[in-house]
Design a protein that fits this description.
The protein is mainly alpha-helical. 57% of the residues lie in helices and 6% in strands. The protein folds into 2 domains: 10-95, 3-Layer(aba) Sandwich (Glutaredoxin); 105-277. It is built from 12 helices and 4 strands. α2 packs parallel to α3 (84-95) and α4 runs antiparallel to α7 (174-192). The radius of gyration is 19 Å and the shape is globular. This is Failed axon connections. Belongs to the FAX family.
Length: 278
């Protein structure tokens, strides 16, 4: 019964998006975070894809939670859809987009494995660092007040603890989780090597997801072991994030919530050369 009532209420709330211009994607998302457009790697993933694929879109941060009970989600020609990966597949078909031209099936298989390792495994360790092991930093990233930060971290901590145990990684100790996640990040670092992007000198579709998670790790996880790893050791992942940011988010400062510790834009000296080749 509650599900039916919720669907009716959502349909009323979303009615305005059914009259949006034809083929304009309405990108529903959370608000800006400190030093990064979103604290959600999946929001950043889809946002990067929309820019990489040059798909016309409009951002809405008022209706944040979509048909699957999460963000991001989109409205397109009266249809509402959730889940970043399913959205990308749908937009590829609708707009005839192919960001994987020039890559072999074997290369794309490696890209998929890298994405799944980060999205389905490493991300849960990062979430536990955010909500359970080091819960004082995340409220500063999303910019909630002193009252709401306790609510956010209590509810979020309970959710992450329960879901991570169901996934499996939450059954381990903090030290074991860090070891597993660092192993994932090192593996992706080995795959990228000296490449400009995940698979070579040009981006593929899964670069959107890889950037989403690595950028959140670098700029949305203050004082975490994973941030330290990218800053002090895995320099190719740090430079990869800067390169992707500078190419696909030249307006980065307008996309973030400014703080006194805003990020320097320096770091990737060859960005302009790479832009010229894309």
């Amino acid at each position: 019964m509650w599900s039916s009532i919720r669907n009716i209420l959502n349909k009323r709330k979303w009615a305005k998006w059914e009259t949006a211009p034809k083929d304009l994607v309405i990108f529903h998302t959370f608000g800006k975070a400190a030093n990064i457009p979103s604290a959600s790697p999946f929001v950043l993933k889809l946002q990067t894809y929309l820019r990489m694929a040059q798909i016309p879109h409009k951002t809405d941060s008022k209706h944040q939670i979509g048909p699957k009970g999460k963000a991001p989600w989109i409205s397109l020609n009266g249809e509402h859809m959730g889940d970043s990966e399913l959205i990308i597949n749908h937009l590829n078909e609708h707009f005839k987009v192919n960001l994987n031209k020039g890559f072999t099936p074997a290369q794309l298989g490696v890209a998929t494995c890298a994405r799944v390792a980060l999205e389905e495994h490493c991300l849960w360790g990062i979430a536990m660092e955010r909500f359970i092991f080091n819960p004082t930093q995340f409220p500063k990233v999303v910019g909630v007040g002193p009252l709401y930060d306790k609510i956010l971290m209590t509810v979020g901590g309970h959710f992450v603890s329960k879901r991570s145990k169901g996934q499996g990684i939450g059954l381990h100790s903090q030290q074991e989780i860090e070891h597993l996640c660092i192993k994932d990040l090192r593996a992706v670092s080995d795959i990228i090597g000296k490449n400009d992007f995940l698979l070579g000198s040009g981006p593929c579709q899964d670069d959107c997801a890889i950037f989403g998670i690595l950028a959140v790790t670098l700029w949305g996880q203050p004082n975490s072991p994973y941030e330290k790893l990218l800053r002090d050791d895995l320099h190719n992942l740090r430079d990869y994030c800067i390169r992707m940011r500078d190419i696909y988010f030249p307006d980065w400062e307008k996309c973030i919530r400014p703080t006194s510790s805003s990020i320097s834009r320096g770091g990737a000296n060859n960005t302009n050369k790479i832009k010229a080749k894309l």
